[in-house]
Write a structure and sequence with these properties.
single chain, four-stranded parallel beta sheet, 8 helices, 8 strands
């Protein structure tokens, strides 16, 4: 078998899918940075649904590079049906093409996510000249929401990891699960905060970030006189996320090598 450093590897990031150009731009940057830092001869992204390139095209593009191994990264914050679908489709296409392929774990249950959230909240305070210490700040983390219990458990695991750093940390969901954003806003304001820092727990600047979350937060605040609320950036492109991709990739690649 070839050694680790002579093996020609490709990295394929599978995202759920979005028509928003900002999402594709973020994924391009992430896959490019992962290629450079991870020593891959090829790295790109594809989508599970919504628009091409779909998984089959993504794998074919890797095969064209004559690689010895394709490492597939399901770029999902949560376990659940979408992740399962992506993994099953990848495995089936791999079998059809007779290609050597490994699939990493998704992003969830990593301490890296805690630090990314805290980075976003720290930047939010700096950008708005907030002098309060973290322990004086209340945080509301907004997730997408899922009917799958495993997804909610993974989300809450990350929420729990930041609780000791702030005065109070609540969470809510945009859709499919509760508490709703309205309920989340109500809950955090009832605790008499000095300030509320909102963290949108979303990977990309898709339609939910550009539209839906802002709209729901504004609607919720119509019922309150409290206005000292700031919204942080979504997760987006981040060195820590690239490193997490490479960490997940190394976990499965070393078993092959």
């Amino acid at each position: 078998m070839q050694g680790e450093f002579s093996m020609k590897k490709a990295l394929l990031i599978i995202d759920r899918g979005s028509k928003e150009v900002e999402v594709q731009a973020e994924l391009f940057k992430i896959s490019t940075q992962a290629k450079e830092k991870g020593g891959y001869i090829y790295s790109n992204f594809c989508f599970l649904e919504v628009i091409p390139p779909y998984i089959d095209e993504g794998i074919r593009n890797c095969i064209k590079e004559n690689v010895d191994l394709i490492t597939v990264m399901p770029y999902f914050l949560y376990p659940g049906l979408k992740l399962k679908d992506a993994v099953q489709k990848t495995a089936a296409i791999s079998k059809e093409n007779g290609v050597k392929l490994v699939i990493t774990k998704p992003l969830c249950y990593s301490e890296v996510l805690k630090f990314v959230i805290m980075d976003r909240l720290t930047k939010l305070k700096l950008d708005n000249n907030i002098q309060l210490k973290d322990k004086e700040c209340d945080v509301l983390v907004i997730g997408h929401g899922s009917s799958d219990r495993r997804a909610t458990e993974a989300f809450i695991f990350t929420i729990n990891s930041i609780k000791r750093f702030y005065r109070n940390v609540d969470y809510c969901f945009l859709e499919l699960a509760g508490p709703t954003i309205q309920e989340g806003i109500n809950s955090v304001i009832q605790k008499n905060p000095k300030i509320v820092l909102i963290m949108p727990y979303f990977l990309h600047k898709g339609i939910h970030i550009k539209n839906d979350v802002i709209k729901e937060v504004k609607n919720a605040l119509n019922n309150h006189s409290f206005s000292n609320i700031l919204i942080a950036d979504h997760i987006g492109v981040d060195d820590k996320m690239v490193n997490l991709i490479l960490q997940r990739a190394n976990e499965v690649e070393k078993k092959i090598v």
